[in-house]
Every structure is written in C-alpha cells, then in structure tokens.
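Severity: low
Component: inverse-folding endpoint
Summary: output formatting inconsistent between runs
Steps to reproduce: submit the following structure tokens with default settings.
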C-alpha cells in the first residue's frame, strides 16, 4: 500500500497533545473564516492583498477544517500537515513580514507567535507522524496472531 510510509510512526503517545493543539487551532480558524468572512475570511484576504479573496478564503478555510480534523484524529497526519505548513508560510510572509518592515523585530515576534507555533507544530507532525494513539497507528498495526490463523 503506497500510504504505509506516510502512516507509520514511532512517536510517543504524548504527540497526541501536539496533534490536538495544532488540529484544533486550524479547525477553529477555518470555521471562523466561514462564520466571519468580513473579518477572518475574504475581507481579511482582500485587506492583505491576496488574489481572488473570496474564493481563496473558502479554499483555505476548507483545508483548515479538513486538515484540522484529520490531525486531531491522527488520520493521514503527515499528508494533512503539508497544507497546514503551506498555509502558515503564506500567513507569515503576507502578514508578519510587513510588520517586521514597519514596526521592527519585537513587534513582529509578538504578532507571529501563534503562526510560528502552528508552523513548527505542523513540521513536527510531518516529521514524527501521529503516534500510537491515532487512526494512522491503527491502520498500520500488524494483524494479531489469532487473526492470521483464522484467515489461513
């Protein structure tokens, strides 16, 4: 199965905490883009100069909701972390680098703390995978010996 390498993980059970944090923040931010488009979705995208703000905001929101749920479940964790990494890189470049230019490093560092945490959390999940308390672990678990005897 081509997905096996993407699902395998040797991470400790405590990675669940990182999955829940990163997944919930992305899920929550995606939902808010749908609920409050003027301030969190298309309106914000237009304000920062992104192209086709309405379509792009719904596209990004959909990925945030879907990937957030996948991360919380620990399902396709490495694959789900890739869009979140891309989203955070774009967010930092479009919203935090201008702050660096206008207000300096410390203001940018303050404003970017959540973005930076979400980026590093997503990279961490891409590297280590979902851990044993995940759907990925269940999908890659070897068959118990009794189950193999019944199949024979």
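Observed output (run 2 of 3):
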């Amino acid at each position: 199965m081509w997905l096996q390498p993407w699902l395998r993980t040797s991470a400790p059970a405590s990675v669940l905490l990182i999955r829940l944090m990163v997944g919930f923040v992305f899920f929550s931010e995606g939902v808010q883009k749908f609920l409050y488009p003027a301030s969190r979705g298309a309106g914000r995208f237009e304000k920062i100069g992104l192209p086709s703000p309405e379509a792009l905001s719904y596209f990004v929101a959909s990925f945030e909701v879907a990937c957030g749920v996948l991360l919380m479940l620990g399902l396709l964790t490495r694959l789900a972390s890739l869009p979140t990494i891309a989203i955070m890189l774009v967010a930092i470049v479009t919203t935090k680098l201008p702050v660096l230019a206008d207000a300096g490093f410390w203001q940018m560092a303050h404003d970017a703390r959540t973005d930076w945490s979400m980026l590093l959390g997503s990279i961490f999940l891409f590297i280590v995978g979902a851990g044993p308390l995940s759907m990925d672990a269940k999908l890659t678990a070897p068959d118990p010996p009794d189950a193999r005897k019944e199949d024979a």
